[in-house]
Amino acid sequence: MERNGRLIQEKYREYFLSTLAMSGSASIATIVDRIMVGNLLSSVDLAATNLTAPIICVINLLYGLFINGGSTLAVTYKGSRDQKNADKCFTISIVLGAAAMLLMGAVGFVFRVPIARALSVGEPGLYQAVCDYLFPMLFLGFLVLLSNGVSAYIRVDGLKTLAITVPILSNAVNLLFDYIFMGLMGLGIGSAGWATNIGYFAGLFCSVIYLKSKKRSVFFTSLGKEDLALIGSTLKTGLPSALMYACLFLRTFVMNSIIITAAGLVGSEVAAVCISADSIATIFYGGTTQTMLPIGGALYGERDYKGLKAMLNTAAKVTGTVCLILMVLFEAFPRQFGAIFGVTSPEASALLDTAFRMFALSIPLTGAMHIFRSCLQATDGKNTASVLTVVEGIVCFIPVIWLFGVFAPKLIWLSFAVSPLLAMGSVWMYLCQKAKKTGKQGILLPKATEEGAALYDFSIVSKIENAVEASEKVIGLCGENHLPSSLGNLLGIAAEELCVNIAKYAYGGKEDSVDIFLRISADDVILRVRDNGVIFNPVEFQDDEGKEITGLKMLRSLPMTVDYNRVLGFNNTIVTVVVGVGTTTQEVTS
């Protein structure tokens, strides 16, 4: 009887689909936005959307710092059954994050003219389009945080339908107004920015529904001076994501400057096509990143290291397959892809044949780097994840693209592939050296071992008849570790009662998996039972007539502590027995 990993795979697929809908709808909206701009307006306006990307990076930087940091830390606290700090993380991420976005918009508004000049890199033909598109983007951050930020917590609570609705509604409204403003009314590039604002404003309605829902598990709470350390921890947790966008801000600005210098306006148009291709890939490896963080944080909080490994394997297979397929398509059809965005001039098409194909080599490497960083960020490698982001985004990319720009301008597009390869290689060597010096087991993931404790986990199919098998397994493991038979019987009864009632009530007679974890130490024995069924709290559960279920009532009368925690849609029941505190065999079985 072994752990089958089915629950983690199911949860990954469930979260991946909702995350894909969120990040995918945003990326698809961005792509369609650019298609409309390139075809309804001009390729110069298309280039302007790319040149304004550093402002979007600042918005995403603050979003990653507060929302990714807060939601990851909140779910980690929930995994360790600390509801108070989970609520504080929610408050920090939404309230302080919104304030930061407002401050960013105010500063941008004051300095919008010099910012527009800097973004257009002194190219007269680009300045006005950049200036027009920049203005509405300064108001976008506040709406993005309130809409997508709350949506991140909707996903944490497992409200899949509502979580998917938020981004789909936001981006559908955005595209609708894009067509109205640019297609029907003939307005310029600035109207595309206002359409984006209107779309995210529409998404706020779903956020309000969640905030009024009784199913939400995190709430606004007061903050005091004593919470400064928690604010710091939230920002530290979100720092790798934020640094990714900080580096993206700098690298995008440098990249645009070098490309315009080396290839002129045509190079800027081709760069916009390359970034659009990256947006397509981001749907998948960005979805992987945002899926891994909450699940990985919860599993790490529960010290479920086997579950972490299973999640990483699933993420690597999904992302690797999709990225390789995209790379092949981009290599095969560079001109056709450029034509979709209205980039069809002979000069641009000729440049696409070489530049776009070189850029396509970066897709699987960037996907691998996202998985690498997310795995570090969800565990105890947050500082290393931040280092990886800086190394890839600045230390490697900027020197590489500068060297290509000076000595081999036609090869500057290879910079996108070379930099993640160099970054991952250098950080991996650092981790290997660190593990060698400290004697740490496991370079990327913690080993499923714990000093001074014996760890076991296995799975059963949620059938009532299998509950006895689970009970016998637990009793046998307790016997192998020379625990008193009375204690083993006590835990065996707990496992059987929980598995029976999970099959009957949590899954409603449907077959699925139940994961059982047993930790035996000199001080206590912990039994954790996990399922993916409907909300089922054995500590308080009653039947349809309001009467307590007999087996669970008896379970709570035994000399043990029974706790319940629901994280990421999982029911987690934790039974703790202090070694030396128990009853005799006769008392347990009577």
Structural summary, described in words:
With 590 residues, the protein is of the alpha+beta class. It has 2 domains: 6-438, no CATH class; 453-589, 2-Layer Sandwich (Heat Shock Protein 90), CATH 3.30.565.10. 72% of the residues lie in helices and 7% in strands. It is built from 20 helices and 5 strands. Strands 1-2-3-5-4 form a 5-stranded antiparallel beta sheet, with helices on both faces. Helix 1 (6-41) packs across helix 10, helix 4 packs antiparallel against helix 7 and helix 10 crosses helix 15. It is elongated. It starts with 5 loop residues before the first helix and ends with a helix. Mean pLDDT is 83; it is low at 543-548 and 581-590.
What is the overall number of helices? Answer: 20
Beta-strand residue fraction: 5-15%
State the shape.
elongated
Structural class: alpha+beta
Distance between the termini: 29 Å
- Share of helix, binned: over 70%
Gyration radius, to the nearest Å?
A: 27 Å
The largest β sheet comes out as: 5 strands, antiparallel
Poorly predicted runs of 5 or more residues? 543-548, 581-590
The pLDDT mean sits at 83
Which strand order spans the largest sheet, edge to edge or round the barrel? 1-2-3-5-4
Helix and strand pattern: HHHHHHHHHHHHHHHHEHHEEHEEH
User: How many β-strand runs?
Assistant: 5
Number of domains: 2
